[in-house]
Amino acid sequence: MINPVKGTRDILPPESYLWNVVEEIAIKTFKSYGYLEIRTPAMEPVELFERSIGEDTDIVNKEMYVFEDKKGRKLALRPEGTAPVARAYLTNQLQNQSHPLRFFYLGPMFRYERPQKGRYRQFYQIGVEILGLENPEADAEIIELLFTFLKRLEFKDLSINLNSVGCSECRKEYVKILKEYFEKEREKLCKNCVTRLNKNPLRILDCKEISCEKIKDEAPTINNFLCEGCKNHFEKIINLISALLIPYELNYKLVRGLDYYTRTVFEVVSKELGSQNAICGGGRYNRLISDLGGPQVPGIGFAIGEDRLMEILPEKFINENSYKVDFFIIPVSEKETVFCFHLAEGIRKKGQNAILYLEGKGVKKGLAKANQIKAKNAIIVGEEEIKNGEVTIKDLNEGIQEKLQIQTFIEGLK
Ligand code: HAM
Fold first, then answer.
1. What percentage of residues in the chain have a pLDDT greater than 70?
2. CA 103 to ligand 1 center in whole angstroms
3. CB-based contacts of 15: which residues, under 8 Å, 6+ apart?
4. CA of 304 to the centre of ligand 1 (A)
5. pLDDT higher than threshold 80 for residue 263
6. Cβ(279) to ligand 1 under 6 A?
7. 85 backbone φψ class: left, alpha, beta (φ>0; ψ -120 to 50)
8. pLDDT of residue 368
9. 4 pLDDT more than 80
């Protein structure tokens, strides 16, 4: 027996059907806002992530799948989708196109983390990015788009945790004060945070160790250090999303685990998920593209963890969107097979699904199968029906059976 790689899994029907429904709603929603798909490779040069996410982050330090190909090139399986979008912007010289550029992406990401509920080594993200706009209206659009999508999945009580991590200028002063504060508490910090203290003190605010949590509580917060520009930007976003009635909470300790963020950062968390509670993370990255050697092009976006999203889908949504067989078509004998193929096609053209009973074991076994797979209706097709241009439809929930002219039946389908 060959087992799957640790932290990976198979997503099987009927669950996979629900994944498809969620993805279709995502794609439809994003397209309706003018976001079109960007597909980037699953592997990239390691350097891309080192230079964007940051060398002193957990993702780059500990969690990347890094390997050499046969020619000795250092590659990484992508741990996230934003840096590849920025790379694609430069590769394809998108600066020559009319801005802003709106993208969405769906796909697997890879992080070598300790697997547990809601945390996998191959997981799936649904993300969007808008490039080329610096103003707070773009932040508001991204956040509003996120909420529209979540509302379409019937989520009612999610809210967004929001913060501004400032720009490289005002953050400098904050990081200095933060370092001084943590320096005083050095002995109480976990081993990782002692390293972070020297390399990237902001990351301490992201630590989930209980010992560090306490020290974090008392730490100075960034809101008191924001420059005028960053403060105004943040206030405008708050005004806009308040006016749009989007539920949010300010969380001045939210810094997120990636270094490319400037100004806005946000997360959507769910209590249902335990410690792996962020279903979505996002933020603004005004320097990402220029840090990769390109022009100064601002951007903002988010990525939803699809695996986690699926774990907390509202019951109402699941009930209304689970796969159901509309019609199970049973030929009485071999002679009706071709007719049944055509009938099924007629039904499918109307947007309903139809499954053929291919086993050829007769009506009784066919009906048993239809019941077993919980089909809504069974259609029995015999010589008699074909001769009269009719179908016999059995509603398997109500137990009612009726004969209809084929044309009347097909035309009556929604
Ligand atoms: P992130 O917060 O690292 O942000 O990941 C986004 C989401 O991916 C998380 O909120 C979580 O739901 C999911 N996720 C992360 N790691 C795992 C895992 N090991 N197993 C399951 N789910 C996971 C980013 O990746 C940024 N690129 C988001 C972004 C887009 N910022 C701007 N634009």
1. 100
2. 17
3. 310
4. 6
5. yes
6. yes
7. alpha
8. 97
9. yes
Ligand 1 pocket check: which of 8, 52, 80, 263 to mutate, most ligand atoms within 8 Å of Cβ? 80
Average pLDDT over residues 5-22: 98
Average pLDDT over the chain reads 96
Q: How confident is the model at residue 277 (pLDDT cuts 50, 70, 90)?
A: confident
Give all strands of the β-sheet with 354-356 in edge-to-edge order: 354-356, 327-331, 377-381, 390-395, 400-405
Q: What mean pLDDT comes out for the span 83-89?
A: 98
As a whole number, mean pLDDT of residues 357-374 equals 96
Closest approach atom of ligand 1 to CA 279 = 12
Rounded to an integer, the average pLDDT of 171-195 is 93
- What distance in angstroms lies between residue 258's CA and the mean position of ligand 1's atoms? 10
C-alpha of residue 125 to centroid of ligand 1, in Å? 7
pLDDT at position 208: 82
- Helix (H), strand (E) at residue 176: helix 168-184
Give distance in angstroms: CA of 281 to centre of ligand 1. 6
Closest Cα to residue 264, out of 210, 223, 295?
223
Ligand 1: centre distance to CA 217 (Å): 24
Q: Which two tokens stand for residue 207?
A: 């630590």
Rounded alpha-carbon distances, angstroms, from residue 358 to 227, 338, 370, 394: 70, 11, 12, 18
Closest-CA residue, ligand 1 atom 2, reads 281
- Which atom of ligand 1 is nearest to 280's Cα? 10
Tokens encoding 359:
């086993």
pLDDT of amino acid 211 = 86
Which of 120, 124, 266, 308 for a ligand 1 pocket mutation test, highest count of atoms within 8 Å of Cβ? Answer: 308
- Please give the full DSSP string across 310-337, using - where no structure is assigned: HHT--HHHHHHHS---SEEEEESSGGGH
- C-alpha 287 to ligand 1 mean position (Å): 20
Q: How far apart are CA 402 and CA 395, in angstroms?
A: 8
Q: Is the CB of 127 under 6 A from ligand 1?
A: yes
- Helix (H), strand (E), coil (C) string for 211-269: HHHHHHHCCCCHHHCCCHHHHHHHHHHHHHHHHCCCCEEECCCCCCCCCCCCCEEEEEE
Chain segment 298-344, per-residue pLDDT in tens: 999 999 999 999 999 999 999 999 999 999 999 999 999 999 999 99
Q: Are 363 and 314 in contact (CB under 8 A)?
A: no
Q: How far apart are CA 138 and CA 140, in angstroms?
A: 5
